[in-house]
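Human: Here is a favour to ask of a fellow structure person. Comparing notes only helps if you start from a blank page. I am asking you to supply a protein in sequence and C-alpha cell form. Write it directly below this note and I will take it from there.

Assistant:
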Amino acid sequence: MCPPQLRTLVFVAWLLGYVFFLLSARRMWTGKYVRGPLARALLQNIGNESDAASAEAHAQEWYRCCPDLLGESVRPLFIQSHLDSGTKAFLKRSAEKSGWLFTQLYHSLVSTVLSPLVSRTSINGFLSRGSMFVFSAEQFRQLLRVELDWNAERLLDLGAGDGGVTEVMGNHFRQVYTTEVSGPMKWHLQRKNYKVLDIDEWQHVGLQYDVISCLNLLDRCEDPLQLLRDIKRSLVPKTGRVILAAVLPFQPYVEIGGKWERPKEHLKVKGKTWEEQVTSMSKKVFRKVGLEVEAVTRLPYLCEGDMYNDYYVLDDAVFVLKASDESEESDH
C-alpha cells in the first residue's frame, strides 16, 4: 500500500498536470486565438470603431434570412431581428466570465469528475454556469407585438433551465410557472420564486396560460407531437400564444443517463436551408397538431462559454403560434 505522502504527491502532480493541460489548450489564456471578434470588441467596450463595425457585421449574420426562400404562407409572417443592447450585454458578461481563470479551472475539473455520473444540465446547475440566451426583452415584445406596459395572468416556461430566459418574459405576468428535469436547475427556479410543476403533471393541473414558452425543447423530448398537443390544450382559448424556439437544422436527441439517444418519435422536418426547414415545420409539424404560425424570426441561441470559448451559438427559429380551428393529421 502506498504511504499517504506518496498518494498526496501523486494527486498534486496529477492536478498540476491537469491545470497545465487546460492552460495549454487555452493557449496560455491570452484569448488571442479563442475569443470571437464580437466578444473581444464588447469586452473592450468597443473602443475601436472599425473593429466594432466589423464585429457587428459578423454578428448580423446570425439574423440573416432570405424571405423569398420561405413558403408563401410563412413569408409575410417573418420579422427581421437585429443585434440589440440586450444581446450585447449577455455577450459581454459571457466574455468576462470566460476570463475568470480559477473559476473556469474549477468548473472544468468538476465537470470532468461529474460527467460520467450526471447530466450536463445538472452539472451546469450545480456550478451556476451555462446560462442560455434566446431573446432580449425588446425582441420578446416585438414577437408578441405588445408594449412595455403589457401584462397578462399566467406564463408557463417549459424546460426553464436556471430561469435566465424566464426572467426576460416574467415581468409581464402575475404568475410564472416552470418545468424542469434537473434537480439543481429546479433549485435555481425556486430561489427565483417561480412555481415549479412536475414535467408529467403540468398539463393535468387544470390551469390555462396566456403564454407558454417551449424554447429549444422540441428536439430534446421523446414525444414532440404529444408535447405540442398538450401545449395547445393548456392555452387560454383564442388569446393564448406559444413562443417556440427550435434549433435548425433540426437534429433531435434525448439525454438519458448522460448519454444522447434518438427520441422514440422523429419529426419530419425537410429542407437544407433555414428557410426551407422553417417552412416545413410550419406546414408539416405545427399544422398537424392544430397550431398555426403568427410570427417567426431568426435569432442566435447563445450559451455562456468556458475556458475555450467566450460563448457558444446555435441557429434558432423562434415562432409565435396560436391555436387553429383546423388540424392536419397526415402529411398530405
Remarks:
- The radius of gyration is 22 Å.
- The first strand starts at residue 132 and ends at 133.
- Confidence is low (pLDDT under 50) at residues 25-35, 327-332.
- The beta strands are 132-133, 152-158, 173-179, 195-197, 211-215, 241-247, 254-256, 259-261, 291-304, 311-323.
